[in-house]
Amino acid sequence: MKLVFPNGEHGQVLLSAGVNKIGSAPEGAVVLAGEGVQALHCEIHVTGTGANLQVPHGGGPVSVNGKPVVDIMALRGGDQIGIGDILAKFAIVEPARSAPAPGVVQGSDEDTGATRVRMAVPKYVLRGVSGAVFGKVFPVAGPVVIGRAPECDISVQAEEISRRHALVKPTGDGLSVEDLGSSNGTYVNAKRVQQAFLNAGDELRLDAVRFIVVAPGMEMAQQTSRMQSTDPVPPREPASSVSKWVPIMLTAAAILVIVALVLGRG
């Protein structure tokens, strides 16, 4: 992912994973000297699932495709970002593909010798358990806005949800959630909150739309433990129940012998 400045205020900048600070401060990832640019004007958070533009407290005016950004907004390839009076374009960098070796058909299963990098599993996932999100899972690898607006990171088409309902982002110990001035409220484990923390197993409810916080690694361990504890064990017949059949079997065998002798004499 990168930023391109079509008017030449800055050379193109490759964005690194994590937080990319943009402003006039010299320690920023993108240093701009335009009029009205604040020391920390805005930030672009790059995660394994995409990128979000966030305006911190005290930041300057920022727009995406002409729409002002109040707090946070997801970015897509081709978006035009207004940073004060400076225009930048957000672009997705496609990985370079080397030409196939002679005699190798492109797209074949030929081993190139390169190690395939496995995508990192997000630490937390929101699993939808009701309404329009039922059965869906949403990884939370960075700040995520949930709302009815199509530009939200998790767009929920439900009338009870505000256009920008809540902000969820990972912390060191779990997830934090903040209500963004919604009409019908944000709830954690049935308690209405303005800001709160979520742990694995907690319920996040936005009016009638409910999510469960899942930690993928923890969930797998719990499922494995549950499967082991519920494995059927063949029942062992008590010794007393076996012993009670012994005299019955001996009696039956004696009767058969007597019947055979009688028939033989006849």
What does this protein look like?
The longest helix has 20 residues, at 246-265. The protein has 266 residues and is α+β, with helices and mostly antiparallel strands. A hairpin with an 8-residue loop joins strand 1 (2-4) and strand 2. It has a 6-stranded antiparallel sheet with strand order 2-1-11-10-7-8, with no helix packed on it. The protein has helices at residues 216-229, 239-243, 246-265, and strands at 2-4, 13-14, 18-23, 30-31, 42-47, 50-54, 62-64, 67-68, 72-75, 80-83, 86-91, 124-128, 137-140, 144-147, 154-155, 166-170, 175-179, 186-188, 191-193, 195-198, 203-206, 209-214. It is elongated and about 120 Å long. 15% of the residues lie in helices and 33% in strands. Mean pLDDT is 78; it is low at 219-230. It has 3 helices and 22 strands.
List the helices and strands and how they pair.
Layout: E1 2-4, E2 13-14, E3 18-23, E4 30-31, E5 42-47, E6 50-54, E7 62-64, E8 67-68, E9 72-75, E10 80-83, E11 86-91, E12 124-128, E13 137-140, E14 144-147, E15 154-155, E16 166-170, E17 175-179, E18 186-188, E19 191-193, E20 195-198, E21 203-206, E22 209-214, H1 216-229, H2 239-243, H3 246-265
Parallel strand pairs: 3-4, 14-15
Antiparallel strand pairs: 1-2, 1-11, 3-5, 5-6, 6-9, 7-8, 7-10, 10-11, 12-13, 12-22, 14-16, 16-17, 17-20, 18-19, 18-21, 21-22
